[in-house]
Amino acid sequence: MIYHVYCDESRQTQDRYMIFGGIITSAKNVNLFDKTMQLYREAQNMNAEIKWSKVSDKKLNEYKTLIDLFFSVNEVLHFKSIVFDTHFIDYKTYSGGDRELGFYKFWYQFLLHSFGDYAQKDDGYLVFMDQRQSSYSLLDLKIILNNGMRKKYGNRIREDIFRNIQPVDSKKSNIIQLADVLMGAIGYQWNRCHTRTGARKAKILLSEYIAEKSGLISLAQKTPFSKRNFSIWPFKLS
After folding, report:
1. Coil, strand or helix: which one is 50?
2. Class of 2-234 per CATH?
3. How much is the pTM?
4. Which of 41, 172, 178, 219 could crosslink 189 through cysteines, CB 3.0-4.6 Å?
5. Domains of the chain: which residue ranges?
């Protein structure tokens, strides 16, 4: 089995809680989902890039329909997210004061622990990350992740499970755009943006709608370990 993982991060600097999120599915499902998304875009007149930042009162119903679409295929498209409390991040102690290095350490934790247990023996991951400017090599991240996989899963892993990690333009990836909306809603509730003066009503309603569809009271909570297809994991920094 070859798995595709599409991932991004949200609220990296401006708020207390930083969210990393991604969607995993088998390679064969990617083209099927893209075809479904094309039908959605045509029916809803949603031809531009889909993003949490674009959620508005005018487009609320279209974004709700997107969420309905996601949960209709959630058995084969699994969403994972990890929440970092930036008040407890000590870049000086753990990354030599290098914030960019610390950022990639967060990616390591997210990818290893959120997706690692999907793989068996000859399976592999192709990871697609929203492109960003960085001095750090994705090849180095891949090597460290494969070392982490062997350390964590031992004899279950016979070769490099993470086959490739590459940047991709989010404008060209339906799944990254979907992940952006889900992450945005989670960050919105964790950072209590819905309580702020001037909070956009559409974002309040959409984040509540996602929580309802996922069977949660709120997105600002940890999901049970058994909830494999939609998870929110608050990472404890030590």
Report:
1. coil
2. alpha beta
3. 0.93
4. 219
5. 2-234
